[in-house]
Amino acid sequence: MDEERKCVMRQIADRGWHSPAGKIVVAGMATVAISAVGATATVSTVRTVTMNVAPLAAIDESSDTIGFADSDLYGMTPAQIDAQLDQMQAMGVNNVRVMIPWAGVEFYPGYYNWSTVDYMIDAADSRGMGVLGVINTTPFWATEPGQPPLSGAPASPDAYGEFAGTVAERYAGKVGAYEIWNEPNAYIFYSPQPDPAGYTDLLKAAYPQIKAADPDATVIGGVVGSVVTYGNLTMNPIDFVDGIYAAGGQPYFDALSFHPYQYTTEFSEGGYLPDSPINQLAAMHDLMVANGDGDKLIWASEYGEPSSVAGEANQAAYLEDMLTTWRTLGYTGPAFVWTLQDRNTASVDPEDTFGVIRSDGTWKPAAYVIQELASQSGTPPAMARMAFALPEAQQAAPADLAADSVDAAGQLVATALQPATATVAAPAPETPVAAQAKDVATHRKIDRQDRRAERSAQAPSAPKVAADTPRRSASAPKASAPKKEPAAAPKRNADKREHPGDDRRRDRHAGHRG
């Protein structure tokens, strides 16, 4: 029995369906023909056992992947968390971004309260959902002197890195990706003021700790908001990312993330505005290419539109425009919608009305848009189907192995399958995710290269860095890439008028988000 079970588990593992921690989850029922209810059940012909196999923690990093960013989950009861996750999956969304607040978990040094984070992540994990965790907020004891808790920069990057490693060790196989802080280019989240070099110290401390605990986790840096530079309060995301490279941060992230909020213009229509999110996004990618990071993706780990500003119909239109446009750009990763449910639909405060579900639980038009777009992205990555062919040889099964008493598909297959003749059948045609599981990383790389080639044929080439030009680091001068206007998005005219949404985008940071 043990050898047979091992054989089945090897067959599953060979197909690539395992979590980074090696945990394999099999759900569903396997059916065999039982000639009579009695002492023996037999398999008399070649039969196929089909199982649902959940690759836990994995987030499909393609640009058509949709998730919800919902930091409010941290303040909810278990019943509320369950209800929120169920609503996400009712829309076809199988990825969630959650807050893992250092200040909430390690309120006193060395004393941890994991209860809420454990429940959130276990609840998502049990549903086969991909989890993106944002590790943010500073405990009062870990801030720089004179700085407030939560938003104050950590006095010791190493202490932050140690906490990040503890998180990754605890949730290995359950959390697929981690973001290092949230919107550090705004003082409201990183005080006393945005500091790319200081933020890079957090990357340098956290990245090796996370990778040591969970080598398969994706570590995401930047996490920048779409703002304009405004004194010491906010810093343009391009300047901030440029500062990360200048401080030697290039080896310490696997992807960057960006929050392309823009309340008054659709994402695709912002090309005529110099500081619009779509132009900032293109400039960010150009900067990555110039620093040798052209193969790294940019995730949209937050994007939303408050219905109190735009109205519910426009909220739906803006979300559809952004999510659809995002999929066409060739260098983008998953997009996470902020957020699932309104805090108060009747409020005039934009921070209360970002949800695609009203506070009474009814769906807004935007919820149906997300449901439709999620259905276009193929089989949800949370679950794929696999088939195993049973051998022709007669195999005896225990007398109590009637169909209505089988409590796990793995137990039945381990009993019925001959190790010597076990074969793995081809995935069912309606499950493209299973067919791609052998080499997901290669497929994504090929797709990105193809899309990048198409984009290069339609737009001016990104500035080149000579082969003998060293990559920027903390001790090296900046590469001599020319300063340029953002490209790749269509410009309607060349005027430099003030972005009509700039004030709103600055004010947005007054709210409490991830």
From TrEMBL:
- MF GO annotations: hydrolase activity, hydrolyzing O-glycosyl compounds
Transmembrane domains' residue ranges: 21-43
Which SUPFAM superfamilies does its entry note?
(Trans)glycosidases
Residue ranges of region Disordered? 423-514
Known Pfam families for this protein?
Cellulase
Q: Looking at the record's lineage, which domain of life comes first? A: Bacteria
Q: Which GO terms describe its biological process?
A: polysaccharide catabolic process
What sequence ranges are listed for the domain Glycoside hydrolase family?
76-305
Residue spans of biased composition, Basic and acidic residues class: 440-455, 482-505
Where is the sequence biased in composition, kind Low complexity? 423-437
Q: Which UniProt keywords apply?
A: Glycosidase, Hydrolase, Membrane, Transmembrane, Transmembrane helix
Similarity remark: Belongs to the glycosyl hydrolase 5 (cellulase A) family.
Return the protein name: Cellulase family glycosylhydrolase
Lineage, opening ranks: Bacteria, Bacillati, Actinomycetota, Actinomycetes, Mycobacteriales
